[in-house]
Amino acid sequence: MKIEAVDFHYLSMPEVTKAADGSQDALVVQVSAGGLTGWGECEASPLASIAAFVAPMSHGACQPVSASVLGRRVDSPDDIRAIAADVAYNSMDLLQSAHTWSGVEMALWDLLGKARGVPAWQLLGQAKAFPKLPYASVLFGATAQETLERARGIRAAGFRAAKFGWAPFGASLQGDIDQLDAAREGLGPDGVLLIDAGQAFGEDVEAAAARLDAMARNRVTWFEEPFSADALEAYAALARRSGPVAVAGGEAAFNRAMARHLIDYGGVRYIQIDCGRIGGLGPACDVAAHAVARGVTYVNHTFTSNLALSASLQPFAGLEGHRICEYPTELKPLARDLTVNRILPDAEGLIHLPDAPGLGVEVSAAALQTYRVPVEIRVKGQTIFAS
Amino acid sequence: MKIEAVDFHYLSMPEVTKAADGSQDALVVQVSAGGLTGWGECEASPLASIAAFVAPMSHGACQPVSASVLGRRVDSPDDIRAIAADVAYNSMDLLQSAHTWSGVEMALWDLLGKARGVPAWQLLGQAKAFPKLPYASVLFGATAQETLERARGIRAAGFRAAKFGWAPFGASLQGDIDQLDAAREGLGPDGVLLIDAGQAFGEDVEAAAARLDAMARNRVTWFEEPFSADALEAYAALARRSGPVAVAGGEAAFNRAMARHLIDYGGVRYIQIDCGRIGGLGPACDVAAHAVARGVTYVNHTFTSNLALSASLQPFAGLEGHRICEYPTELKPLARDLTVNRILPDAEGLIHLPDAPGLGVEVSAAALQTYRVPVEIRVKGQTIFAS
Q1: Is there a contact between A208 and A170 (Cβ–Cβ < 8 Å)?
Q2: For A268-380, where are the E strands, in sequence order?
Q3: DSSP H helical segments within B295-359, as ranges?
Q4: For residue A347, how many other CB atoms are within 10 A of its CB?
Q5: Which residues 197-226 of A have a C-beta within 8 angstroms of B?
Q6: What pLDDT is stored for residue A289 in this prediction?
Q7: In this predicted model, what pLDDT tens digit does every residue of A356-384 receive, in sequence order?
Q8: How would you classify the pairing of strands B297-300 and B270-273?
Q9: Low-confidence residues of chain A, pLDDT below 50?
Q10: What does the alpha-carbon distance between residue B78 and residue B74 come to, in Å, rounded to a whole number?
Q11: Secondary structure (3-state) at A322
């Protein structure tokens, strides 16, 4: 199959707020080849990611993503990896290219799976897809009381695990302790409790470490993204003293090396990969293999649609012991409506990857229309992108 | 001073080729505040970098650069650092933001220097600006014979050091050996010879190491960017066996942590920083301090205009022992014409930082007009950027 077209659908809620809620807009990628359509999603700024696909070339090492993609043949997993290598080299000086390519790469696996009639996880070399234990992934309430109620709701909905994240966590030590106590109380004594600091502590190891006692007392399984994504030294310092609380991170990794370094230099015990950022399913799969080799647990990072969720589950579908998975439960209508079919917990509270070919998720044409953001980019008087 | 406006000037040569020549286009940043104008330059894809400034917000951690910049006060170096921290946090999920911010940050030092009547290097806390020994930075010839002639020309022009880089280096071992011999022969026995592999070896340590004997025999001072920017393990492996040839890298670093890791985990002995990528002068200065602490030599990376050159020299102006500096000698007319004044070697072949306030370089209004690339970006029917 020859890649004939790559179309970008920029979608948005009518209003976008400063909440750390990544489901307020979306960049959906549609790849057409051989009469088939593959779908992917960039977890990224839509406009900047579109620009990285269509930008005029600056020089040989700063080419747009399109230069390495359009017209290429995709008949095997190796073809996808070959294009990935070309994007990495030809666009090495175009920073945004990794985010753009992530959605395209995802769509290529969807496409190849459809062509062969097999799910993407099989193309990735996995013999079986094991069910996953979804953790409800939500933001902290503005107050501990709100978090308490949110946790009770999650428990009542049948989830056995939950993650609370971002502001106001990090604002004050006592406030954080109250939040941690409230989350544990609401979730009940047997729920898996996860905490996401949203990089609140920068590189300040002492500030992060001050929360460890309250985390240990509340049996927090992991302390996610305490620091800036690249603060490997701070990660390592916290990991050395975090005792029963594992340090987690990785959602910002936009190539396999960044994830590897968080494991090998940063000492994280859970590596969290977003296929919409790391370059798609191929590098995510490599990170999963590295995690296995190091005794680290691989987890998806997903805070957007079920298309992104399916993609992010594929690379570790075959890892039975890596059982927990992120499952966003408070999606904005845009992200909820984007897929016709949904990935829902079964009676035992477990989720299963779709059986259908590729990513096994059908994109809603109506949603693409309803939430559409028209964009036009003109350079030297020529329209180089119009949606 | 309050930041009233940030204007982007996208410039380009009429024709842009795949040569690894970063001077074929440019993104010049003009910041207006308190009746003064500061100038900076992003070493980046112009269109993608503009998009990262004007893009609609995706969520609280994926805001455009403009959200943290416009309307802010800049009355001291601390103000610049405070804005930098806000950009890093508010735009953490907008990958391109680091490149966009680099040009803006540079312009803020230019602005503040003009307001106080002192050069930027003084604002950065340095007591004196020492002269630097420029190395002529050029691409390899297509053949060893061409490289020989290019090296002779550089020697005849009075340069005491030269760097040859990029393709065809890496294509074949014998070809590379011939290129190395030719470069040394043309430069003469006493010239400082530097080699830039332009990431040709990916993560392949053995392929890079196969070039070490010919480099040692030709007394190559450094072997630059043998690997992908993030391949810290490969850097470390090569550094352990490179003997008299130092491993160098860092031009891709877009924050201080990446540069620190190349030193501490990758074992480079020269750290090469482009202020148009790393977030401007502030983080570059921090990297210079880290290099001093580790016994590593700091060097600028510059392959574009004299505006970028002046900016990239400021952070290590006061480091007398860090003497060598990159000096592009085959600039495209665009990059040559961009500044009214030029930084030229003196009778002894040394270059001096401008004495004038800020970056001390005057931008040519004529060049901004001559090489201008008109751009218009429309979202939801509204023009959000027009040049």
Answers
A1: no
A2: 270-273, 297-300, 324-328, 375-379
A3: 306-313, 333-337
A4: 6
A5: 198-199, 202
A6: 98
A7: 999 999 999 999 999 999 999 999 999 99
A8: parallel
A9: none
A10: 8
A11: coil
Q: Does A174 contact B at CB distance below 8 Å?
A: no
Residues of chain A in contact with residue B380, where contact means CB-CB under 8 angstroms, are: 373-374
A133 vs B: CB within 8 A: no
Helix pair angle (B97-116, B46-54), 10° resolution: 80
Give tens-digit pLDDT for B302-358. Answer: 999 999 999 999 999 999 999 999 999 889 999 999 999 999 999 999 999 999 999
Residues, chain A: 387
Give the pLDDT confidence score for residue B108 in this predicted structure: 98
Q: Which residues of B touch A43 (CB under 8 A)?
A: 93
Nearest CA-CA distance, residue A197 and chain B, Å: 13
Burial label, A336 (beta-carbon count in 10 A; 0-12, 13-18, 19+): middle
What does A196-219 look like in DSSP terms, one character per residue?
E-TTTTTT-HHHHHTTHHHHHHTT
Torsion, CA A116, CA A120, CA A122, CA A126, rounded to 10: 160
Asked if A56's CB is within 8 angstroms of B25's CB, the reply is: yes
When CB atoms are compared, the residue of A16, A202, A377 closest to B58 is: A16
The pLDDT tens digits for B237-268 are 999 999 999 999 999 999 999 999 999 999 99
Cβ–Cβ gap B24/A58 under 8 Å: yes
- DSSP symbols for B197-221: -TTTTTT-HHHHHTTHHHHHHTTEE
Whether residue B128 lies within 8 A of chain A, CB to CB, comes out as: no
C-alpha closest to that of A209 among A201, A220, A218 = A201
Q: Provide the whole-model pTM.
A: 0.97
Sign of CA dihedral A239, A245, A246, A249: negative
Q: Which chain B residues contact residue A375 at CB under 8 A?
A: 377-379
The answer to whether B56 faces chain A, any CB pair under 8 Å, is yes
| Residues 67-106 (B) with a CB less than 8 A from some CB of A | 85, 88-89, 92-96, 98-99
And the tokens for B124? 């950065």
